[in-house]
Specification:
By secondary structure, the chain is α+β, with helices and mostly antiparallel strands. It contains 6 helices and 20 strands. The strands form 7 sheets. Strands 6-7-15-11-12 form a 5-stranded antiparallel sheet. The chain has a 4-stranded mixed sheet with strand order 1-2-5-3, covered by helices on one side. A 3-stranded antiparallel sheet has the order 17-18-19. The longest helix is centred in the C-terminal third of the chain and has 19 residues. It is an enzyme of class 1 (oxidoreductase).
């Protein structure tokens, strides 16, 4: 295989929070075939194996990870056929939205500022500015729980707010999206406005993993967290952002434990004060 392999590799360089211990082994497959071969081989030999993209909504453990950590960013084929595009799981979602704008296709404007990969975006039904992946996805190619490759139409996937039925049930290899013809200048203008809003409202200058909690029905997690008095609170090197209370930022020395303690404290306090149970949007990866 041509893919890169590293031993005892720092997980903090594999996620946007810049947090985590050492990974026993990290593999960057260069194509879908390499990803499948290593994934299936690890399962056959009962070696722990995990798959990630750009690590934009995960919290890696301070203890590190055993086994094999696969990074999908090399699985990045992108083939256009008119308004339909077939994209590898490791392709940048933000880049795909920019590609669509340049080709004159509308439907992915919401994704321009989302930092993850196509595979991760599908699994978590990523969205922003009133749009989401489920609006444009038509088909996925996966490795199912039996280790078989299959294609699923959108109608066979259940979508929810920042989640879908593929999570923890399958490995996404590829997504197929159907867009509509539009005006490139108008599409780029919408994307520019969306990016400007993100810059004003989100702490993009510091390492973070995006929104920590999902918005409860009819309310905003950020509003509740701020109302509970957590905005600006710090534990170790982690802080509830002063710009947006639903973001936890790393000031350079934050550990996973610092972040988990903040998450636990916020969760308990908001439930006690307002009777609302916040659910996390970011995913903590257990070392076991």
């Amino acid at each position: 295989m041509k893919g890169r392999v590293e031993r005892q590799f720092p997980l903090k360089s594999l996620n946007t929070w810049r947090i985590g211990g050492l990974a026993e082994a990290v593999f960057w497959p260069e194509n879908e075939e390499e990803l499948m071969a290593v994934w299936l081989s690890c399962h056959e030999k009962e070696i722990p194996v995990r798959l990630f993209g750009r690590g934009s909504n995960v919290l890696f453990p301070d203890e590190g990870l055993t086994g094999v950590t696969i990074i999908s960013t090399g699985v990045a084929q992108c083939v256009w056929g008119g308004s339909q595009v077939r994209v590898g799981a490791g392709y940048s979602l933000a880049r795909l939205s920019q590609d669509a704008a340049e080709c004159g296709y509308t439907g992915l404007e919401f994704a321009r500022g989302i930092p993850g990969t196509v595979g991760g975006a599908i699994v978590m039904n990523a969205g922003a500015h009133g749009g989401s992946i489920q609006d444009v996805l038509v088909e996925v190619k996966i490795i199912n729980r039996e280790g078989k490759v299959e294609r699923l139409g959108k109608e066979h996937i259940e979508f929810g707010y920042r989640e879908c039925s593929l999570r923890d049930q399958a490995i996404v290899l590829e997504g197929v999206f159907c867009l509509k013809a539009g005006d490139s200048a108008t599409i780029r203008q919408i994307m520019s406005e969306n990016l400007a809003k993100r810059k004003v409202t989100q702490p993009l200058e510091l390492p973070n993993a995006g929104s920590v909690f999902r918005n409860p029905d009819g309310d905003s997690a950020g509003r509740l967290i701020e109302a509970a008095g957590w905005k600006g609170k710090t534990i170790g090197g982690a802080q509830v952002s002063l710009k947006h209370a639903n973001f936890i930022v790393n000031h350079g020395s934050a550990t996973a434990l610092d972040v988990l303690n903040l998450i636990h404290g916020i969760h308990t306090d908001v439930q006690t004060k307002f009777g609302v149970e916040l659910k996390t949007e970011v995913r903590y990866i257990s070392p076991n």
